[in-house]
Amino acid sequence: MEKLSEQELVRRQKLEEISKVCNPYPDKFDRTHSIAEARELEDGTKDVRIAGRVMFMRKMGKLSFVKIRDLEGAIQLKIEADKLGEEGYDFFKRLIDSGDFIGADGEIITTQTGEKSLAVEKLTFLGKALRPLPEKFHGLQDTEVKYRERYVDLIMNEESRNVFLGRSKFYAFLRKFLGENGFLEVETPIVQTAVSGASARPFFTHHNALDIDCNLRIAPEIFLKECIIAGFDRVFEVAKCFRNEGMDSEHLQEFTQVEWYASYWNFEDNIKFYTKFIRELVMYLKGTTTITYQGHEIDFGKEEWPRINYVEEMKKILGEDFLDIEDPSVLKERVVEKKLFTMAELEDYKSVSQIIDFVYKNYIRKSIVEPTIIYNYPAVLIPLARRNDANEKIIDVFQVVCLGTELCKAYSELVNPKQQRQSFEDQLKAKAQGDDETMDLDETYLRAMEQGMPPISGLGFGIDRLMMILFDAPSIRDVVLFPIMKPEN
User: Fold this and answer.
1) d(C-alpha 366, C-alpha 354), whole Å
2) Per residue in 256-282, pLDDT tens?
3) Which residues contact 288 (CB under 8 A, 6 or more apart)?
4) Is 34 exposed, middle or buried (0-12, 13-18, 19+ CB in 10 A)?
5) Element containing residue 462 per DSSP (H, E)
6) d(Cα 96, Cα 125) in Å, to the nearest integer?
7) How many CB atoms lie within 10 A of CB 145?
């Protein structure tokens, strides 16, 4: 059993004393205003009822000052013995600690030092904190503690509060923007019976009631396109996805992404729509389209973003005929011959698509800083994308890359069931070569496709990575409320 500190023992003794006077954990408190709203009131406004957590106290003889805060604001309380009465003031001075919750009734004033305050006429005790808050936030600089005890991080750190308030505002903006443009929000299964929608290593589980093995969703794509088949012209989902892969500053196994699909669009329509969405989102959240991330100034406000042709750039790196190479060992020899990587560095990459992607990420993507559109992808990379009419080895795909990381991926969708079956079969060949991130051959989806599909373009992006850039966070864990952690010993 955990050994309690002296402060924790004292707080428990105070709890016992409070219990003799009132219920230390009452069931409700009716506020007239949030703290942020109270701060906007004119001096002299009476009968104001606010509540929050005690963050700071300066207790003196007959006059004390307390700072309380809620999620979006803080305010000073001016507490006088003459107004509370001797008994009430003694209760406050002896039994209330930082971290406790209190309610306060009173009048809005501005003190001689210019501080907007509430002159308290009545205090209500609302909840005892049995553990003390850190004296200063530097006590939470241990990142393990910061992520494991996010509630303390949010209590003490305004920067963290701003990130997660911003994330909530993002969801509101997203739904409003898409709704105004004719998109309907839908929900699709997390527990699935086929690995499809993206190239990734899945989590597997067992469905006891049906006695079948299942996988957790790696992307919602297949089901969203089935909604299009069903007649939903424009759909989107805010989807929890799971990929059983490595962890680093940009990747967690559980993450949140948005995917939207529009009938009768191609990927050029999605480029226009996405860039408009980002411009308006950044302005909404930050008040400007120019932000700073880790020392880099980034402008999202340009009407036209730079473009890079993926295939043409890779031809410069790998050679004109790289699209014709089907044997992974041949492609590896080409990469080594060009002195791009050693054979040892390529050992973990089993398929042609994995090798191409590895070279792209290290020789094209990582050097991009400003928001840039990468388009014209090799068909081997994405089996669900539409083949280019002029060259079937190229697909109508684009990504937006910024600061060396992918912000979104979108394409004109493959709606020809015959071509889709061939693409799935090509994926099975890659799986046989040892690529465990390939998709399954999804007969259920192929059957749905045969019902008929209109032209479609879809787009997906990770919310976590976008939040990192918008809020200047160096790690994905800084923008995820409760990132997974190893259990403490």
Assistant:
1) 17
2) 999 999 999 999 999 999 999 999 999
3) 282
4) middle
5) strand 456-462
6) 8
7) 14
